[in-house]
Specification:
The protein contains 20 helices and no strands. By secondary structure, the protein is mainly α. The longest helix has about 30 residues. It is globular, with a radius of gyration of 22 Å. The model has no long low-confidence stretch (mean pLDDT about 90).
């Protein structure tokens, strides 16, 4: 009994070390930057708090923030707590998901490289500046990334065990994640297409009921928006984002005027429309620009890619030296520079590895093909918006580390053969 317990502790030692380092790292990061975990009036924090209030107070679903993230964030409202408690709960949840993502990543990479090398890669991932900084705000990226990596972990488990219920679990989680950020619908569809030849086997898995429940939740979301706003859709955020960012940037190129997000006549007129009218306007605008302003639309799309791939963490940049410490400016500069370098380097390496795995898919493990497709999809869809710094790209950072693990394994195998 004692020997069995000791063996289990030995297996968990890397997880314990990661946890200890994570705590020290968070405290140090927060201390030197004077970064306080909480609500920011700049950015999207307010929209998520409003959506949670709307759900628990008025029993209504927000037009842009799906009800699952509103339900999870707003849970303290159910027990009569204030908005302050809701924000505190949301931040705690963010940090839990931030660390859980690293554990999921460690488990995946362990199956590829072994626990020692997986520990080193997981440790490197902990020091992704933009991802940690995001956990300090009332934003859903940490929850979204944790669910995404858990789904990828289940896909890896399928290829390891050949048990089909892991596929169903992964698809269910990806659809559930669409109720955190609607962009995950595309990931779920990609997975369904890839495993479509196995659809008969998936229907009879013990986790298929969970998938049906999640799909039912999606229809509840869509039906609610149809009933309240007029469209059978998951969210209006896609239409709003396109019209105010990519579409507006292309329109400014056409007119030869500077683009300032949210500050132009086009946007002012758009905000006066109903949600249904916004969706119709955005769809019509996209069709019109695709047909009559093709070059500028493509130019704006490339600009959005560049904008999101070349900036560091906005949250780090917004930190202020309220305590007037001598070391603040130094650490802020270092972390700003690191987050920018990480975004540029990680995005560049991601695209190189994605191209490598997709072009040579016949000779590659199908798991890495799926991971590569996920990264490419997330990168391409993020260009609907611009000036987001690294916020949209931190989403595929953990997936990059999985591809890196595969690349390192191939390098080790080649060296072994040469010897």
């Amino acid at each position: 009994m004692i020997q069995s317990t000791l063996r289990q502790l030995a297996k968990l030692k890397y997880e314990y070390v990661l946890f200890g380092i994570a705590i020290v790292w968070v405290l140090f990061f927060s201390y030197v930057l004077q970064l306080k975990a909480g609500f920011s009036k700049v950015g999207d924090d307010g929209s998520y708090l409003h959506a949670a209030q709307l759900l628990y107070t008025n029993y209504k679903i927000d037009n842009t923030r799906p009800f699952f993230i509103s339900m999870v964030y707003g849970l303290p409202y159910l027990f009569g707590y204030s908005s302050t408690s809701v924000i505190q709960w949301g931040i705690v949840l963010n940090f839990c998901c931030w660390f859980l993502t690293d554990l999921f990543l460690f488990r995946i990479v362990s199956q590829i490289l072994g626990r020692k090398k997986a520990f080193l890669l997981s440790l490197l991932f902990l020091f992704c500046i933009g991802y940690l900084a995001d956990a300090f705000h009332f934003l859903p990226e940490c929850i979204f990334i944790a669910l995404l990596v858990l789904a990828v972990y289940y896909l890896r488990q399928y290829f390891t065990t050949q048990k089909h219920y892991y596929i169903t679990l992964a698809i269910a989680l990806l659809f559930l994640n669409a109720l955190v950020k609607p962009v995950s619908v595309g990931l779920a569809v990609l997975t369904i297409v890839f495993f479509f030849p196995k659809w008969k086997a998936l229907i009879y898995t013990k986790s298929f009921a969970f998938l049906l429940v999640v799909i039912a939740l999606l229809f509840v979301q869509m039906y609610s928006l149809k009933k309240k706003y007029g469209d059978f859709t998951l969210s209006y955020i896609g239409s709003i984002t396109y019209y105010n960012y990519l579409g507006a940037k292309a329109d400014c190129y056409k007119k030869g005027i500077p683009y300032i997000p949210g500050k132009n006549e086009r946007t002012y007129a758009f905000t006066r429309l109903s949600n249904h009218e916004m969706k119709l306007r955005a769809t019509a605008d996209f069709k019109d620009q695709l047909k009559h302003n093709t070059f500028n639309l493509f130019k704006a799309y490339l600009y959005c890619m560049y904008s999101n791939s070349s900036k560091g963490s906005f949250i780090v940049s917004e930190c202020s030296n309220e305590k007037h410490t001598l070391y603040f400016s130094t650490f802020q500069f270092i972390f700003k520079a690191l987050s920018k370098i990480q975004n540029i380097v990680f995005t560049g390496i991601s695209l190189l590895l994605v191209g490598f795995h997709l072009m040579k898919s016949r000779n590659k493990h199908p798991f890495y093909f799926i991971v590569s497709a996920f990264i490419l999809y997330l990168f391409l869809i993020s260009a609907l918006s611009c000036y987001q710094c690294d916020r949209f790209h931190i989403v595929f950072y953990p997936l990059l580390f999985i591809l890196l693990a595969s690349h390192f394994k191939n390098m080790i195998s080649k060296k072994a053969k040469q010897l």
